[in-house]
Amino acid sequence: MKKFINHVDTLLDESLRGFAKAHSDLVELNSEPRFVRRRQLSQSTKVALISGGGAGHEPLHTGFVGKGMLDAACPGQIFTSPTPDQMLAAAQAVESGAGVLFIVKNYAGDVMNFEMAAEMLDCPTETVLVQDDISLPKEHEIGRRGVAGTLIVEKILGAAAEEGAGLAQLKSLGDRVADNTVTIGVALTGCTVPALGGPTFDLPPDKIEIGVGIHGEHGRDVVDFASATEIVKTLCVAIEKEINPTRGQKILLHVNGFGSTTLMELYLIFELAHEFWSKKGLDVQRSLVGNYTTALDMAGCSITLTLLDDELIRLWDAPVHTPALRWGC
Amino acid sequence: MKKFINHVDTLLDESLRGFAKAHSDLVELNSEPRFVRRRQLSQSTKVALISGGGAGHEPLHTGFVGKGMLDAACPGQIFTSPTPDQMLAAAQAVESGAGVLFIVKNYAGDVMNFEMAAEMLDCPTETVLVQDDISLPKEHEIGRRGVAGTLIVEKILGAAAEEGAGLAQLKSLGDRVADNTVTIGVALTGCTVPALGGPTFDLPPDKIEIGVGIHGEHGRDVVDFASATEIVKTLCVAIEKEINPTRGQKILLHVNGFGSTTLMELYLIFELAHEFWSKKGLDVQRSLVGNYTTALDMAGCSITLTLLDDELIRLWDAPVHTPALRWGC
């Protein structure tokens, strides 16, 4: 395994120290227990938004800590849930009297540990569960995975919290955004997990995997490699079957790279997906293209749609000032 | 070659169309000849800043078109110089009466074609040549290559142009920034050029290449793979020998990924480089970490230092609003 690394055990901490130095105007790192918090909290009392999960998906979540998005993020080791004490310490550091909202991707370990943290906290809490990955059926026993749509929930809730929305209002808004956000991904390759020293899975040179998760979890189908247009069609048709959208529906179209897919390819995917949805009569009102929810160095991408209304558009457009997402301020 | 692609010949245009759609608030695409321009030019007359070069380095240069940076960018095919008619048409589209400044990476084709465009234009022009890659000796017959430092020249000149600096002033400022910017890179792997269908070069599993160019040009040395600390030391010592900095010198430290290196690794490299320079008594005043000047899907990174003074810091901090770099507005 040829990666920039000193030791598997120190990679995350060394990297987080660099991250905190590079963005010292925005964030602060707490080492023990490990969390990243906004350097400067909002001056008025607001609900504290906290997310977290295994590392290896950068910039998610640490890159989204800052004004108009998260107040803190708790990174676990690579592809490993953070622990309740991280969440508890993060919450105690950024809670300002209006309660705490946890934004949690639907993985058993994450869900359990955030639940434990919520129980230990002596302030009001709510949790929004993100399960946007439609590659698994809705009835799947552990539910659907939270993937690239998570940042959309974080962005929109961040804006609403900044405006002073209360805990119950944020919980309801977050559930609405999560319910209206769907994602499906495709892998061209596996990803190299440092602790394994090699790829999580192998795909033959002529195969790709539809519906892969952001840890390399198996998806729906391993299919023949095909043209970009064919691949985009496969992904978009799966989304269409899921949401059955009506003509004129406003959408946010997010094309997310898994790590080693070039921007040139991601913009190509965006062009083709834009064409697909426009032909179906959907109105692509907002977009986001780039490597935001990665799976280490996996080659591949996902397509996310959020069904928008005027309120969600306004909150999406609201100022955000974080290491990885920044506009309007 | 497993890449998201329909056809090698259409990749660039399809991708640029997606790029222009995703950032339609900021940029406009001209298809024939091919260039990307700011949608809305500054209201007052200002020097037009134009750059360009072969595609495959995204977000450089198209991602840096917008307020406070470039007025237009001319992408050639992958790793291929754009043609003079692209530069001429771009200049005619964005020139507003104060002349045109070309920012050119030092490659023979780029230099020649920008020169031809300048000759054909009937307005005053200047050119700033960027040759920040110290892996070649200063006396090299075709000079040093322009690499990741280019965006720093573009950002600082963009801010100065926005403030109303004249052509001569920008030329002098640009030369000063270019002279004070040095870069050296390291490759862990080659990159996959779509037209070749495979990698530009191969590195054995236990070797890395120091001083590699952003098209996979051979560097100084192929050496044994080593720890991140050792690799950073090798790169920083090469920079130190070149610039021989004095204690207390303010610097901008830019760690740039070549495409498929994770943010986790890049922040680790930043942490180690920050430590190296801090121990030497340098003052890391500003930083930038991410995949900004890529070599398609190459794994690797470069370290860039710009020696700062108060004027350069002020111009670096000035508002910028482009697809890939955005702050202060």
The average pLDDT score of chain A comes to 96
Q: Helical residue percent of chain A? A: 25-40%
Largest sheet of chain A: 6 strands, mixed
Distance between the termini of chain A: 41 Å
What portion of the residues of chain A fall into strands of 2 or more residues? Answer: 15-25%
What's the quaternary structure here? homodimer
Q: In one word, what is the shape of chain A?
A: globular
Give me a quick take on this structure:
The structure is a homodimer of 329-residue chains. Chain A has 329 residues and is an alpha/beta fold.
3D structure, described in words:
With 329 residues, chain A is of the alpha/beta class. Chain A folds into 2 domains: 176 residues, Dihydroxyacetone kinase, domain 1 (Rossmann fold, 3-Layer(aba) Sandwich), CATH 3.40.50.10440; 134 residues, Dihydroxyacetone kinase, domain 2 (Hypothetical Protein Tm841, Chain: A,domain 3). Helix content of chain A is 31%, strand content 25%. The first copy, chain A, is built from 8 helices and 16 strands. Chain A has a 6-stranded mixed sheet, sandwiched between helices. In chain A, strands 11-10-7-14-12-13 form a 6-stranded mixed sheet. Chain A has a two-stranded antiparallel sheet with strand order 8-9. In chain A, a hairpin with a 4-residue loop joins β8 and β9. In chain A, α2 packs across α3. The radius of gyration of chain A is 19 Å and the shape is globular. Chain A starts with 10 loop residues before the first helix and ends with a strand. The model of chain A has no long low-confidence stretch (mean pLDDT 96). Chains A and B meet through α1, α6, α7, β13 and β16 of A and α1, α6, α7, β13 and β16 of B.
